[in-house]
Amino acid sequence: WCEVSTVSSTDLELSIFTRLSEAQADWQQLKDVLHSNPYQSPGWLCSWFETVGQSLNCTPVIVVGRCRGQAVFLLPLQLKRSAGTSALTFLGHQNGNQNTGLWHADFYRGATADEMKSHLSAVCKQVGADLLKLENVPETWLGRDHPLVFKGATSSPSPVFARALPSDFGQLFNDTHSKSSRKNLLRKERHLQAAGNYTIAKATSPVDRQRGFDAFLEQRSVRAREAGIPNVFSAPPAKTFLSSVVGLDAAGSAQDHGAHPLDLWYLEAGDRIRATYLCAQHGKTLYAYSNSVAHDDMLPNSPGLVLIKEIIERACSDPTIDTLDLGLGEERYKTTWAEPVSLKDSLLAMTWKGALRMRLEAARLKAKTHVRNSSILWPLIRRLRKMKAGIAGNS
Questions:
Q1: From start to end of the chain, where are the E strands?
Q2: What is d(CA 36, CA 88) in angstroms, rounded to the nearest whole number?
Q3: Which of 114, 153, 157, 306 has the smallest number of CB atoms closer than 10 Å to its CB?
Q4: CA 248, CA 239: separation in Å to the nearest integer?
């Protein structure tokens, strides 16, 4: 099929691009409107496609909807062939937290799930997709039901955790933590300060960015070995992608040109970086993407919890931030600070092969969701992973 094609309807013209550069003008325009998220920004996904995407051999399918020549939405998708079928999914979904698309505010307010389902069915036919699979879409977003959540959509395995941020951090701390937990966390903070050379900062210099990035990779690697948790940043393409979005080039040197999607926060005590957090400010929301903690003598003082507390406190005092998004995964600190926001998966079969794969995907997602939400099965799996890691480490 051709690199750029157009599908027309009564009110909307859809353009389909298979080169990211061809959609840059529309992409940048809608990104700046801020009905979007950082994981589908042009900087994020261009870096992703040049690294992880190339290793997965997927084809970009950038769908732009226009009304009277004005771009009103952009959906960055990818076509991937596997086991004799082709699925159209979100571009870069393997390394993002949620998928919203990019929207003009006026169009988003009136867009319906039935209309978007019809438009995307036409796209699937145009590119030869057997299955449309839209995963991790917020059930409600920006005050309304998301138009990419189709009727019959199933729950994603994990929610994201978010909350509105007040300007008064003290009140937030009191509302979310008991008196004993506040006292305990502040005690741990004092112990970290007592180690000397105590710093919590957002890396701004090339040297600090590099030190923080190296610490992040090492700490994630140690955690993966000790807990048996897969490390999504262990493969070279993923490392290269991450270095790019934190402002480092492929060789690990700082990039001094242009903005980078992720900021790197770190907590240092006793001349060592004890915890890191990768965050992105997009619009008025602070997105916490991924973190790491050193497994050393300071671990009992919970440097990761102290770091996120400080990040949230500073966000509360920042007039440009009014929302916190702690991302995917149910961790205790996330449930303490924020509330779960349900994500949905919409599957749409276009062919008999797509229907077969859809049933298999639906069964897989249902089983995964059941396990993740089980108070018995999920803790058991985590314990088994840790035991397996211990056995591997001793062999």
A1: 4-8, 13-17, 59-67, 70-82, 85-90, 102-103, 131-138, 140-141, 144-145, 154-155, 160-164, 199-202, 263-269, 272-282, 285-293, 323-328, 339-341, 343-349
A2: 20
A3: 114
A4: 11
Total residue count of the chain as it appears in this document: 395
Cβ-contact 73, 62 below 8 angstroms:
no
Could you count the other beta carbons within 10 Å of the beta carbon of residue 32? Answer: 10
Retrieve residue 76's tokens. 């960055």
Q: Is the dihedral of CA 27, 33, 39, 41 positive or negative?
A: positive
Pairing of strands 144-145, 140-141: antiparallel
Question: How many Å apart are CA 206 and CA 253, to the nearest integer?
Answer: 8
Do residues 346 and 132 touch, judged by C-beta distance below 8 A?
yes
Helix 206-227 crosses helix 377-394 at what angle (to 10 degrees)?
Answer: 100
pLDDT in tens, 312-365: 999 999 999 999 999 998 889 999 999 999 999 999 999 989 888 888 877 777
Spatial separation of the C-alpha atoms in residues 237 and 32, rounded to whole Å: 28
Residue among 151, 142, 392, 182 nearest 284 (CA): 142
Residue 102's nearest CA partner among 65, 132, 151, 47 is 65
Encode pLDDT of 65-115 as tens digits.
999 888 999 999 999 998 789 999 999 999 999 999 999 999 999 999 999
Tokens 């929207």 -> residue? 103
The residues, ordered by sequence, that sit 6+ positions from 29 with a Cβ below 8 Å of its Cβ are: 71
Helix axes 206-227, 236-245, angle to 10 degrees: 140
Rounded CA separation 167/48 (Å): 35
Q: What does pTM read for this prediction?
A: 0.87
Residue 216 tokens read as: 């992040």
**Half-sphere exposure (CA, 13 Å, Cβ side) for 136?**
22
Q: Which among 253, 249, 239, 243 is positioned nearest to 52, based on CA atoms?
A: 239
Torsion angle (degrees, nearest 10) of CA 371, 39, 92, 373: 0
